[in-house]
Amino acid sequence: MDDTQLAKIFKALGHPTRIKIVRYLREMDRCICGQIVEIFPYSQSTISQHLKLLKESGIVSGEVDGPKNCYCINKELLERIKEDVSGI
């Protein structure tokens, strides 16, 4: 992974709520629809903004499932991040 992509990922992870979302998705180990909003004390629009940044960085993928958006963690990218960080 090049330095620009790695910096974009670090920027996406630069907020505690986004880190919590990633940890939650990794822990659940499956795609999650509406539950993400339910576990945080923030509005849906706030969580949607965090998810948007995570999606743009590639850490999270999202799919539309009817009226819902489902989110999954990108496990391959997380492994690449671990490898790249250990090489810094």
Notable characteristics:
88 residues, Arc Repressor Mutant, subunit A, 2 strands, alpha+beta, two-stranded antiparallel sheet, single chain
Radius of gyration from CA coordinates: 13 Å
Shape: globular
Please, what is the average pLDDT?
A: 87
Percentage of residues in DSSP E strands = 5-15%
> Could you give the order of strands across the largest sheet?
1-2
Q: Could you estimate the helical fraction of the residues in percent? A: 55-70%
Number of helices: 5
Series of secondary-structure elements, N-terminal to C-terminal: HHHHEEH
Termini gap = 12 Å
The CATH architecture classification is Orthogonal Bundle
CATH H-level homologous superfamily name: Winged helix-like DNA-binding domain superfamily/Winged helix DNA-binding domain
Structurally, the number of domains stands at 1
CATH level-3 fold name: Arc Repressor Mutant, subunit A
pLDDT under 50 segments (min length 5)? none
SSE class: alpha+beta
- Major sheet: 2 strands, antiparallel
- Provide the CATH top-level class: Mainly Alpha
Compute the number of strand runs.
2
Give an account of the 3D structure.
With 88 residues, this protein is α+β, with helices and mostly antiparallel strands. The chain has a single domain, classed as Winged helix-like DNA-binding domain superfamily/Winged helix DNA-binding domain (Arc Repressor Mutant, subunit A). It contains five helices and two strands; from the N terminus they run ααααββα. It has helices at 3-12, 16-28, 35-39, 44-57, 75-86, and strands at 60-65, 68-73. Strands 1-2 form a two-stranded antiparallel sheet. Strand 1 (60-65) and strand 2 (68-73) form a beta hairpin. Helix 1 runs antiparallel to helix 4 (44-57) and helix 2 (16-28) packs across helix 4. The two termini are 12 Å apart. The mean pLDDT is 87.
